[in-house]
Design brief:
This protein is of the alpha+beta class. It contains 5 helices and 17 strands. The chain folds into 2 domains: about 20-175, Protein Transport Mog1p, Chain A (3-Layer(aba) Sandwich), CATH 3.40.1000.10; about 185-300, Lipocalin (Beta Barrel), CATH 2.40.128. The chain is elongated. The chain starts with 17 loop residues before the first helix and ends with a strand.
């Protein structure tokens, strides 16, 4: 799919999916997962939800709203309201510059995907801000991708990055679907605790940005039987305090930088973490219940 400013995609007939949604919602209790690879020049803000990606080149941004269960004819509602009710208040459009143009696209794994291209009247000087909103329907749930720029000129600069993210969109199965455990992953599973420096920001009147210092703090790695890994300082919370019930899917959406997967190859534990899966950690397996990651020793509890 290629998004444009000067010429919209041709409008296509959008079919109703209410019956499909109702049947799928009854059969599935956990929503699917929206996957994509954000380009390097889209900065992922730590604030959310939604997942907010800011262009590092121009005043433009894109928000991703993960799948949530729905009912009724969401496609008809999208055509009527642009699904504005699903958009966070700070990103909701205030005044349309013209009638939206609708079309349909194909996204792997989705039951349907629908596009609205429209302009929003800026509150500063009346300039038209280009916007594109995608509604993605899969198995009784919907996700939204919403892109906007401060001006048509800014949109043209950000467009290649937006296109790259949208081209990478695909839908996985339900959250909570896991890969089979192996003897090696079962043997490693558990909560590993170590101590390492943690930066604490200084807050107060007259304190400059970036001020603060390092303190020694508890640092943890949680490994699952199914090859999932999550790390954090201080504490990893799970329902009822039972670490076996920790939700790796929820953690991956909320904190992708510290989430990932691991495998065992010979006498090496290989972890892959990060939003772009670009952080690789190799750990020698020397003593059961102990890991040395970098210069920090971790002990399984």
């Amino acid at each position: 799919m290629t998004l444009t400013v000067s010429s919209f995609l041709p409008a296509l007939a959008v079919s109703t999916t209410a019956v499909l949604l109702a049947a799928a919602a009854a059969a599935q209790t956990s929503p699917p997962r929206l996957r994509f690879e954000p380009p390097a020049d889209l900065y992922h803000s730590a604030l959310g939800p939604p997942d907010n990606y800011e262009s590092t080149r121009i005043n433009a941004s894109l928000q991703v709203y993960r799948f949530r269960p729905v009912s009724g004819d969401v496609v008809a509602r999208f055509r009527q309201t642009l699904s504005r009710e699903l958009i966070a208040p700070q990103y909701q459009e205030l005044q349309l510059a013209s009638a939206p143009v609708f079309s349909a696209i194909s996204i792997p794994g989705a039951d349907g995907a629908y596009v609205a291209q429209f302009g929003e009247v800026s509150s500063f000087g009346g300039m038209v801000k280009p916007r594109v909103r995608l509604l993605i329907v899969a198995r009784g749930a919907v996700a939204v991708v919403d892109a906007q720029a401060a001006s048509p000129q800014a949109w043209q600069v950000a467009l290649p990055s937006f296109n790259a993210l949208i081209a990478a969109l695909h839908v996985d199965g339900a959250a909570g679907v896991t890969t089979p455990a192996t003897p090696a992953t079962r043997a490693l599973a558990g909560l590993y605790v170590g101590v390492k420096p943690k930066f604490i920001s200084a807050i107060g009147v007259g304190v400059g940005a970036g001020s603060g210092g390092f303190v020694r703090a508890q640092h943890l790695y949680l490994l699952s039987e199914h090859g999932r890994v999550y790390r954090a300082y201080d504490d990893i919370r799970a329902p009822g305090g039972d670490i076996r019930r920790f939700d790796f899917d929820e953690a991956e959406q909320a904190d992708p930088v510290n989430s990932g997967h691991f495998i065992v190859q010979g006498d090496q534990l290989l972890m892959t973490l990060g939003e772009r899966r670009d952080e690789k950690i190799s750990v020698p397996l020397r003593q059961p219940g102990h890991l040395t990651i970098g210069t920090v020793d971790y002990t399984r509890r």
